[in-house]
Amino acid sequence: MKDSHNIEDNRIIKVFLDEEVQPFAEFAPPVKFVLDTTKIPDGKHQLKIIAKSSNHIEGIKLIPFEVKNGPEISVIGLKDNEVIDTQTSITINAYGSETNDKFIIRGSENPRAIPSWIWALLIVVFAFGLFYFVMYLKQDLYESFF
């Protein structure tokens, strides 16, 4: 009977990007590494991890991900797969790649119209305030029921 401590540890992890034939990294487990996305073009990619156990049994894990190193691009006036048949006004904005700040509110620089529900809410609040102001000026409108 073999002692389990004498078994050679030939475990290996190979990491592939997309459909590459050669791995971009090989490690002995466990491993912690940094994936530098600045060297990967923007778009959808897939990380393929092949691990081999001490018994030479392979396991595969596929992890799809998307790289977005470039600026945030916002398009107003045209949605994905939208059918249009007239002249359409489109606003395009790109921002965000030139800053290293950690606090970025995405979409804050887009020129969007104020939603109609906010206008309706403002009109109701203004009308409510105007009603009470008129009632305050004309005290004779108040009647006591007692």
From TrEMBL:
Alphabetical keyword list: Membrane, Transmembrane, Transmembrane helix
Transmembrane region(s): 117-137
Domain of life: Bacteria
Organism of provenance: Mesonia ostreae
Designated name of the protein: Cytochrome C
Lineage of origin: Bacteria, Pseudomonadati, Bacteroidota, Flavobacteriia, Flavobacteriales
